[in-house]
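Page 47, continued from p. 46.
Same chain as before, 157 aa.
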Amino acid sequence: MNTPHADFEQLIPELPDWNNGKGIDIEAWIGCEGDFRHAIGYSVIFWPRFTAVEQYVLREPFSVESLRGFERQRQGDIRSVEAVMNHLHIADIQYYGCKDITRDRIVYVGRVLREIYEAKLAWQFPDRRFSVIFDDSEQANLIDYEITFFQLADPIA
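Result:
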């Protein structure tokens, strides 16, 4: 499942305005507008830390207290516990009140994160199988777009 080619000028409308209207490509734009503080912060989103805890695989950081609470709430259903513990609302990776949030931008980021999660989980846990879920269909609210994952029952032989 490949992320479709993105129309970066649609996602970042100011790209064509750079260089007196000649435009700028996205990598050059990052070189002008980006900073290392944000790059470091986004690194934990775009290359998440996963850890095996008991029978679970969880995204770090996590709370053992929350884990135990969800185990009780979900009656020990490992997939359900993992799905809720590992979920991330795409809109939450920006600051609250972010003015440039759109469905197209959230869907692009969610699809990229789905590929990253699939690749990293397969690399980090080659003996386990996972379902990584990002529903990119029309949602009622932007906060409803989320990514999550859980282990599938049968490991890779």
